[in-house]
Amino acid sequence: MPLQVRDYSWQQTKTAVFISVPLRGVCIRDADVFCTENYLKVNFAPFLFEVFLYAPIDDESSKAKIGNDTIVFTLHKKEEVMWETLSVSGVDKEMMQKIREKSVLQAQEKAKEAIEAKAAARREDQKYALNVMMKIEEEERKKIERMKENERIKATKELEAWKTHQRKAEEHKRIQREEKLHQQEKQIEEQRKKLKHKSLTGNSTARNTPTKGRNSENIFSEKLKEDSIPAPRSVGSIKINFTPRAFPTALRESQVAEEEEWLHKQAEARRAMNTDIPELRDLKEEEKNPEWLKDKGNKLFATENYLAAINAYNLAIRLNNKIPLLYLNRAACHLKLKNLHKAIEDSSKAYRIMKLHLRLIHPTKLYKMMLRRFGI
Q1: Which residues pair with residue 63 across a beta bridge?
Q2: 136: burial class by Cβ within 10 Å (0-12, 13-18, 19+)?
Q3: Which residue from 15, 46, 287, 329 lies 20 to 30 Å from 22 (Cα-Cα)?
């Protein structure tokens, strides 16, 4: 239950009312002051001070000063009259409650109006700032357009000057060409006149010299023979025979089949290397061997670099597509990368190549190869 403050004092003039309310230990932080046109309340626990004013006041220009255990109010009257009392007399509880509620509503309305006015002012400020920014941007845009226009005019003038210079240079070159052609025509005409004069003088001397019969004809015939073009050479073919390879090893220990297969692989590799493969341009000669590429792919597979290993096997297959191990190793890489369809495809190719190799080998040679393989 709050304690009502009764021992306050007040004074007045025609324009203002001064109220002094003593409150022990009051401070700005804990004091709750509420003031409207007809109602004034101070709540500082456990004290409560409220007064229902005799006449309306200007609550916006009124002030409160808190300090030294006292609150001093300076309330400005709306009408310049002297009040009979500070508080309205004959106010019951219902009337007090209505005045309180009305004061609260008025305060809320004023707060709402203040918020709306503040928002409107902020919008106006934003609008003004936006207009200023738009004006600045418009000026900047016009300035940039003027600069562009000046640059365009300058570039146009320079282009026109360059075109004029080019036309003058072309005209000068044309005049020089015409002069040169005219001089050449003069020279040709002079040469033509000289040749004509020589031919005329030659004919006159020929008519004056006596003919010598067959000897003169022989001179012309020899000259024609000298000027004639020799006939083309006849076409022929040259046969080249290679010395057969001799294997001094005994037939039981002979490795003719393996050597022939190795030679065949080397020939295919050389033919593939002679083709225009972009990947082989930056490689060394030893790096263009399918066997070297296979070993490189095996090392990359051991380090779990499956994509690089696939690239090595791909290049080796392009060099020699008859080695089944290349397909098997590439299938293993695809299997590690979960490319099951490609793994099955490479495995099938390796199986077909191995099956073809077994068909091509004679059974006797196959038997001997197996004996040598197992050391029998």
Answers
A1: 74
A2: exposed
A3: 15
Q: Which portions of the chain are predicted below pLDDT 50?
A: 210-220, 223-226, 373, 376
Predicted TM-score (pTM) of the model is: 0.35
Helices 324-336 and 306-319, packing angle to 10 deg: 160
